[in-house]
Specification:
The structure is a single chain. This protein is α+β, with helices and mostly antiparallel strands. The chain has one domain. Helices cover 12% and strands 29% of the residues. It is built from 3 helices and 12 strands, in the order αβββαββββαβββββ. Strands 1, 4, 5, 6, 7, 8, 9, 10, 11 and 12 form a 10-stranded mixed beta sheet that branches. It is globular, with a radius of gyration of 19 Å.
């Protein structure tokens, strides 16, 4: 489910009502998420990201509310059942000298934070690299070929059209808009697992993404 959510975020973030915009300022260099202790022993292995004292996959909704206080908005995904949602979205204002907010996705079954998304409005890629470091991995992804109307996961592909800048050992994935003269970061995601599948073959794990078998008439003996 997380893979499809990330794929949805890739195309939906610019217009999502739950993702407030952030404006970059020099004060971002002192942001809390840059001071969190992170394990960088293996840069290609994904580790749980930590943001403002909340660790994805470990911290609960109760801890989130205790540390961050009352959210500005509580909602759910459009495709989710509003009466019995699988996920709950918490929207918070930033407390780091920035105008804007943060979206936190919480899985209702476990009560744990599933991922955290920060959607900057004006954060040049060059500034992001200054803040996060040059030890990133650039990965291209492509959507799985699934049934129309289904939320497709993404998989690593050199021919893909989704480009992510990843700090895997810190659980951070950034979406960068490469159109225009200036590369801009449109999303900073804190996760605890890979944001995509390793290959197109793995798409077949999802029933809605399995190739349709053609009906073959049996030969008469």
């Amino acid at each position: 489910m997380f893979l499809s959510l990330i794929a949805w975020l890739t195309v939906a973030i610019p217009t999502s009502p739950f993702c407030a915009h952030l404006t970059w300022r020099h004060g971002l260099a002192e942001a809390a998420f840059l001071r969190e202790p992170q394990d960088q022993q293996d840069e290609r292995q994904w580790k749980a990201g930590t943001y403002r004292g909340i660790t994805v996959g470990k911290s609960t909704a109760a801890e989130l509310l205790q540390k961050w206080g009352k959210p500005k908005v509580i909602g759910h995904w459009d495709w989710d059942n509003p009466k019995n949602p699988k996920f709950r979205l918490y929207h918070f204002d930033s407390e780091e000298g920035l105008t804007g907010g943060i979206m936190v996705n919480v899985e209702m079954k476990t009560g744990k934070v599933d991922f955290i998304d920060v959607a900057p409005d004006e954060l040049p890629f060059s500034k992001a690299v200054e803040l996060f470091g040059k030890d990133y991995i650039e990965t291209w992804y492509e959507f799985c070929n699934c049934e129309p109307g289904e939320e497709a996961p993404i998989f690593e592909s050199p021919d893909g059209n989704l480009r992510y800048i990843e700090y895997r050992s810190r659980g951070i994935a950034m979406v960068v808009n490469y159109s225009g003269n200036t590369k801009m970061v449109t999303s900073i995601q804190f996760v605890d697992k890979p944001i995509g599948l390793k290959s197109a073959k793995e798409c077949e794990k999802f029933p809605e993404c399995r190739p349709k078998r053609k009906n073959v008439k049996p030969k008469r003996s």
